[in-house]
Design brief:
mainly alpha
């Protein structure tokens, strides 16, 4: 199994599928099913890998990796084509493949102009995100990190709403500044490690064996942290996210929430802490403070929003604050909870943005005040809206509760004060969630809009997402088992 370039196929299949759209560029009725077929094939491959996750380690692979591809690329500078998959990247790959299918289905009828270009950009972005989750060479990782930026910029700028150009440029500038600082840090790591060991390389497994102990380590880690914090996004570099979400098309919002935010958290786990373990410990108090401020501040701001999409966007800042909290703790329980919460947030928030997009397509507004009493006129929509709102709020038995519970347990073990303050972040989302559900679904003082209920396609997408949320909430053990070995290797605590 490991003799085949499966990881390369995961990265190149969406790109190749996107290029195959060229002959039907002016025939969107053919481009849609072709693009969806490519995305489904990618999901099938990812699902097969998930089913085979108990496979033995790949020959010659670093500890914990069961798929591994290593080839010379630019040998003069120690740059290699190095890909690897462990339990963490496996879950991120499955999330990416599934979210891409969801993004295509929720924009099936909503995108009319330049539809083929829209699907090409989604597939191109899927290739870039897959590369981020699989690359183990810093230069290769940076290449894929930048590839992600371009399709999202055009998705927001071309098919967005409101101040779409402003939001696209703001997104581009924020992420570009962080990326350039990270590039400088990557070069610094390469030079410092090479001078210290005589081996000039960008390969993460070799760099992690001799972590940077130079006086510049805090500065280098700070550059990595800033780049990843912007993508999280952490307070106070989060301000691009509400604008991007509000003005992005539905598919763009789904991908932003479910995937792009996760690349920041993943980068911190995969590269930031292993390369700079001592510097990371020194930054832990700052990360705790920023995470807690983000959790509390985002909940407060979310309550004040009248635009449903903007409310869900601010809720994402709060949920990702919990992920940052678990990473700062860097214990096996909290870190497992953070990675699981990345998956949970991806499924739940993708569903919420899809629901808001479906409502916007029908009513051409996202204002909370425009709705009321939808439970009586759109019962299927209302059921799913209530279900995913409760999942986002952390209702026991649904997926978000499991991740947040593990994070808080892990944080209480290491930093009880931070855990106690962050506990408010469990309570506050209930306030704005109950307000949203009450006003949109059950407010009888307003005249309910007569809108058509969900189509079979829309209902099927949400039903699958609901089953996943419920399954993880009731039985998270299979996912936690997948994370056990890589988390143990990262934290140095035996499983």
């Amino acid at each position: 199994m490991t003799s085949y370039p499966i990881l390369t196929l995961l990265i190149l299949l969406p790109l190749a599928g996107g290029l195959c759209l060229a002959p039907v560029w002016n025939r969107p009725e053919w481009a849609r099913p072709l693009a969806l077929g490519v995305a489904v094939a990618e999901l099938a491959l990812a699902g097969w890998l998930l089913a085979a996750s108990g496979m033995p380690p790949a020959p010659g692979a670093a500890a914990g990796y069961f798929l591994w591809e290593d080839a010379a690329w630019i040998e003069r500078f120690g740059i290699r084509y190095l890909l690897g998959m462990d339990g963490i990247s496996l879950l991120m790959v499955v999330l990416t493949a599934f979210t891409t299918v969801v993004a295509m289905l929720v924009s099936w009828r909503g995108i009319i102009e330049r539809a083929t270009l829209h699907y090409f950009l989604i597939l191109l972005m899927e290739s870039g995100i897959m590369g981020v989750f699989l690359a183990l060479d810093l230069v290769l990782f940076y290449l894929f990190w930048e590839v992600m930026l371009i399709p999202m910029f055009f998705l927001i700028g071309i098919w967005g709403h409101g101040r779409r150009i402003y939001s696209a440029v703001k997104f581009f500038l924020y992420t570009l500044v962080g990326s350039l600082l990270m590039l400088l840090a990557i070069i610094g790591v390469y030079l410092i490690h090479g001078d210290a060991t005589g081996t000039f390389t960008f390969a993460l497994p070799l760099l992690a064996k001799a972590p940077i102990a130079h006086a510049a380590a805090p500065w280098l880690f700070g550059a990595f942290l800033l780049a990843f914090a912007i993508k999280f996004p952490l307070f106070p570099v989060h301000t691009w996210l509400p604008d991007a979400h509000t003005d992005a098309p539905t598919a763009g919002s789904v991908i932003l929430a479910a995937l792009l935010l996760k690349t920041g958290a993943y980068g911190l786990v995969r590269f930031g802490y292993p390369l700079f373990p001592e510097a990371a410990k020194g930054f832990a108090p700052l990360l705790y403070v920023l995470a807690i401020i983000g959790i509390l501040y985002a909940s407060w701001i979310a309550y004040a929003q009248e635009d449903m999409k903007r409310m869900v966007a601010y809720s994402s800042v709060g949920h990702m604050g919990f992920v940052a909290l678990g990473i700062a703790s860097w214990g096996p329980v909290a870190l497992s909870g953070s990675i699981l919460q990345m998956v949970n947030h991806g499924f739940t928030t993708a569903a919420l943005f899809a629901l808001v997009g479906m409502l916007d397509e029908r009513a051409h507004t996202r204002e909370v005040a425009a709705f009321g009493g939808l439970w009586g006129t759109m019962p299927v929509f209302s059921f799913f809206f209530l279900f995913f709102a409760m999942a986002s709020a952390g209702l026991p038995g649904l997926n978000n509760f499991v991740g947040e519970f593990l994070i808080l347990v892990g944080v209480f073990r290491t930093t009880p004060a931070a855990g106690a303050i962050a506990f408010l972040g469990i309570v506050l989302p209930l306030i704005y969630t109950v307000r949203l559900v009450q006003e949109v679904l059950f407010q009888t003082e307003r005249q309910p809009l007569r809108l058509p209920d969900l189509t079979l396609r829309e209902g099927a997408v949400l039903a699958v997402l609901a089953v996943i949320d419920l399954y993880i909430g009731v039985h998270p053990k299979p996912l936690l088992d997948i994370l056990k070995v890589p988390v143990a290797l990262l934290t140095g605590v035996a499983p």
